[in-house]
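Provenance

Sequences were taken from public entries as deposited. Structures were produced by running a predictor on each sequence independently, with no templates supplied. The record for Acyl-CoA thioester hydrolase from Rhizobium fabae is shown for reference.
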Amino acid sequence: MSVDDRPLASFRVSMRDIDIYGHVHNSVYLDYCEDAAVEFLRHREILSHFRHTTSGVAYHVKKAEITFHNPIDVDDIVDAKVGVEKIGRSSLSFAIELFRRRDGAHCASAGLVWVCVSLSDSRPTPIPEATRAALSQG
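Predicted structure for Acyl-CoA thioester hydrolase:
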């Protein structure tokens, strides 16, 4: 997975994210990854391409895959690095890496696949050329 070297999002772990074993529950990692992807789009100043009200299309999560490396605990600060891994005809893949700031430990690797869909029938539709170009820059 190829990601931007600079952290683009940071999260402080809340008590609500913790499971009975004292670390972040596995399902919460997906929230962190989706938030990191949105922060990546915001940082690149292309978030408007992904709002259905301004783009004329919507994006649905098609696939989410997470590999866990090290636990994250309450009050840890997590740094997320994000990159675009692949731009297909109607799909977009993000690579996301999560790191524990206190010691730099690599905590998780994730892949998110979003599919571009038509607002009228929610069926896959090509990613608009303007969005494709904006994602390719930078």
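The chain has one domain: 9-136.
Residues 9-136 form a domain with the Thiol Ester Dehydrase; Chain A fold (CATH 3.10.129.10).
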